[in-house]
Amino acid sequence: MTQEPETLVPDYDDPKEVWAYFGLAFYRANVLERGLVNLAVGLLSKNVEGVTGDDVHSLYETHDSKTFGQVIAIAKRMFVFDDQTANELQRALDDRNHLAHRFFESHDLDLLTKSGKKKMLDELVEIVVRLKAIDRKMDPIWMAAWSHLGVTPEWIEKQAKLYVRSATDTSS
């Protein structure tokens, strides 16, 4: 699997770079959102006696239709986050909503100039860094919620390899 670089450094010359970094920022928001859904489902599955795969699937279906803000609220009801993490989650929600609803509106004229595009890229890099940091912070939390079902980092890595192999086999 490929890893994204630790430090994102735009070259500021590629006309597609704003769009690529916007895509990366929104992707990072989605990854974090999925991690919070994983936390909610993992914690809720502890309350299902004799939990089955169908039970887990049903829990995912219930939470997949929720907004990012709703998922954060559910996670906060089921798990006590320290103040810093709660603030970082709120900032992540604000960043995600800014991307989805206001980013291009707030930069309408910036798209027209090289300095404006640089400003946009710098903002997107900051958002990506913040989202990635809170996602990394959340990983061990949601992983712990799944440990009762035998989900470990090793199990996830094994599954990921199976998925990659399956995707490679079908595309050949």
Relevant terms:
172 residues; mainly alpha; 7 helices; 0% strand
Oligomer type: single chain
What's the helix count? 7
Biggest sheet architecture = none
> Which word captures the global form?
globular
The total beta strand count reads: 0
The SS-based structural class is mainly alpha
Order of helices and strands: HHHHHHH
Strand content: under 5%
Instruction: Report, as a whole number of angstroms, the end-to-end distance.
Output: 18 Å
Radius of gyration: 18 Å
Whole-number total of structural domains: 1
Let me know the average pLDDT. 90
Helix content: over 70%
Spans with pLDDT under 50 lasting ≥5 residues? none
Description:
- The chain is mainly alpha-helical and 172 residues long.
- It has one domain (17-171).
- Helix content is 74%, strand content 0%.
- The protein has seven helices and no strands.
- It has helices spanning 17-45, 53-64, 68-78, 83-101, 103-106, 114-146, 153-171.
- It is globular.
- The chain starts with 16 loop residues before the first helix and ends with a helix.
- The model has no long low-confidence stretch (mean pLDDT 90).
